[in-house]
Design brief:
With 309 residues, the chain is of the alpha/beta class. The chain has one domain: Metal-dependent hydrolases (TIM Barrel). The protein is built from 9 helices and 14 strands. The protein has a 6-stranded parallel β-sheet. It starts with a strand and ends with a strand.
Length: 309
Amino acid sequence: MGPVVRTVLGDVPASELGVCDAHDHLFLRSPRLPGQELDDADAAGEELRAFRRLGGRAVVQWTPRGMGRRRADLAALASATGVHVVAATGLHQAVHYAPEYLERDRDRLAELFVRDLTEGPVRAGLVKVAGGFHGLDAHARHVMAAAAQAHHATGAAVAVHLELGTGAAEVLDLLCGELGVPPGRVVLGHLGRFPDVRVHLRAAREGAFLAFDGPSRAHHATDWRLFDALTALAEAGHADRVLLGGDTTTAAARAAAGGPGMSYLLRGIWPALAEELGEDFARRVFVANPARAFAADWPVRNSAGGAVG
């Protein structure tokens, strides 16, 4: 069958993933965002339907454990809308959790991630982790070590929240250097928030995928630099490393509330990309690259939960 993308409704051949929003949230809850929860299933469904009407076929939800990811609702929405939805396991920064939630050793944490990825009716398809501002604290290193174990057990991609787009080099040094995760299995998020082309080019040269955010009320200050960054990557021969996502983190960012919504990726960004950098570049970013970034040769599980082969 070859590499497949693990969605909430089952495995999909990478070649059939289709047009993909590579970084978004349908549900999200955090004490850091009081009153801004994404917890309305009807609103999430409308976002997916609007995205599909414009040709969207897949959404990768980066909401990790303990932040209201609502996997059963994700499966119901995917079934109702016909959009492939990829869920996440992993953990965000420590500030998003009560202290007791974080009291797990590395092996236990890795075991939980692997279970999310391989067991149950609704399985995750990637591991989400997070760095800090221009560095990695003890929690980040702990979670990334567990994520690396989960990757080695399953092949799952590791998607990284870079705080304000910083710390890419430190993340790659840890994940790929010390922990042995191949760079091509690492997706670096929020790079548009730190528009240092030198950082982007280094990460691309090392083989990581680079995820840029679409416009959002929450982080629009560097939106105008997006095309500068993408042009620099394309001209340096790294078009195959680029991903784009809406990263909708609050209800106000949804189209129904006056925000751009995930559909803006196809309504606004795709046409502009095609005009500026060519239709082939746009199709790579929205179709070919996500299919490679999130696909894996997943291990087969036996009835006792062990890996076969």
